[in-house]
Design goal:
Layout: H1 8-15, H2 53-67, H3 72-84, H4 89-98, H5 101-107, H6 114-122, E1 126-128, E2 131-132, E3 145-148, H7 156-162, H8 165-168, E4 174-177, E5 182-185, H9 202-209
Antiparallel strand pairs: 1-2, 1-3, 3-5, 4-5
Amino acid sequence: MARYTGPRCRLCRTENKRLFLKGDKCKSDKCPINRKRPAPGKDPKTRAKKQSDYAVQLREKQKLKRSYGLMEKQFKLTFEKALRMPGKTGENLFALLERRLDNVAFRLRFATSRSQARQVVMHGHVLVNGKRVNVPSYTVKPGDVITVHQSYKTNKVLLAAISEQQKSGVMPWLSLDVDKVEGRFAMVPQRQDIVDMADIREQLVVELYSK
């Protein structure tokens, strides 16, 4: 399966937005956005001109795609699925992205980043309703119980990640029992509930793929 293997901080610099791809580093002074490092390229100032409508739409799509750690083919398939669903396509797209198992594991603080959560899922450490699931794109349903395998509950990476829950909590559509390391996906989130993606203009993504 294709995946991005380059420097993740470069993606944040390209989008001029903190995408939280490196876990704790994104919250530290080492984050290139905090240090105001310029976009990658030989001379970024020469490219600082007014963007076309297409360029604006493309950047919005790239920010959303990279935030959730998807490659282009995966993202487009998710968009096409959202397009077939009743309701607004942009809101459906966010709902499908949030229901991915790797994202849910990240939201439950089973990992410090989505890429780390994806690895945890692929290694078979995550259980859905008591059954091991190692497919990151697995779609979680309301009422599903997500936990980690007993052998992984003492893992230092997991313990460090879940300790963050004490500081910031989890999203309102999720619940987490820290002692059991067990979470529940209560409902499909509404667009306005996804506050850390409030600056993403999903309508531009819809317009881009509608061309």
